[in-house]
Specification:
Elements (H helix, E strand, L loop, with lengths): L1 E8 L3 E5 L5 E5 L10 E4 L3 E4 L5 H27 L10 E6 L3 E6 L4 E7 L2 H8 L7 E2 H14 L9 E7 L5 H21 L4 E6 L1 H9 L4 H13 L1
Parallel strand pairs: 10-11
Antiparallel strand pairs: 1-2, 1-4, 2-3, 3-5, 6-7, 6-10, 7-8, 8-9
Helix pairs in contact: 3-4, 5-6
């Protein structure tokens, strides 16, 4: 006869832990059993061999803790990712009338930075709210509305929106941004009853424009006017 400590009781069987550290199962004979009670048994079914020790208990606990921490990190990451904004500049968009502004856009065409190129541009920018990490179409609407409010659209000159892609070989980004700016022209500019033209420049043209203290939109517009004259 062997002895073991009862650790689980089912209708048909009883699971015991033997002094050797083995988990065994024996038949339930319908007697009165208590968890933790020592009992004798014969012909057991060995469930698992191995010494039961504090070390094995701590190992199991450590594995459980690691799994729990990993799960928590995964949950926190999945929640946080939508709120982490892409801060790399993928393109530049300028809006010019008498006021001049240039915006930097990320891969999702959200505005991540804005720079005024004259005092009128600074005055427009000062009155804009919640533009950062907002889509270019929405920011363009805010800028044009504020320019109109401050009287910068009351001229015979068209509103100029210019775009420059950082990676000029990225046709997909170019097409996507072009689509957004055409939507600005057809929906927002027409709603404000503003004559607007959209032009596209290169990084080289933008560099020359910045060196001359102006946006690529005004730089290209003035170059085109000179060529026409």
């Amino acid at each position: 006869m062997k002895k073991g400590v009862i650790i689980d009781i089912d209708l048909d069987s009883i699971t015991l832990l033997t002094p050797d550290g083995d988990f065994v199962k024996t038949s339930n004979k319908g007697q009165s059993y208590l968890i933790g009670e020592e009992m004798e048994f014969t012909s057991p079914e060995t469930l698992r061999k191995g010494r039961f020790s504090l070390r094995s208990s701590f190992t199991a606990l450590n594995r459980g803790a690691i799994l729990l921490v990993t799960l928590l990190i995964a949950i926190i990451t999945s929640i946080a990712i939508p709120f982490i904004h892409d801060t790399k500049t993928y393109s530049y968009v300028s809006i010019d009338t008498e006021s001049s502004l240039e915006m930097k856009l990320n891969s999702e065409n959200n505005v991540i930075d804005m720079v005024p190129f004259n005092q009128a541009g600074a005055a427009v920018m000062d009155n804009l709210k919640e533009w950062k990490n907002t889509h270019i179409k929405d920011v363009a609407a805010m800028v044009i509305a504020e320019m109109n409010e401050q009287g910068y659209l009351e001229t015979n000159e068209p509103l100029v929106i210019a775009a420059v892609i950082n990676n000029e070989k990225d046709n997909e980004s170019y097409d996507q941004l072009q689509s957004e700016l055409l939507a600005v022209k057809s929906e927002i500019a027409e709603a404000e009853e503003v004559d607007m033209k959209v032009i596209y420049g290169t990084l080289t043209e933008r560099k020359l424009a910045v060196e001359n203290g102006t946006t690529v939109g005004l730089y290209k517009s003035s170059s085109q006017d000179e060529q026409e004259n």
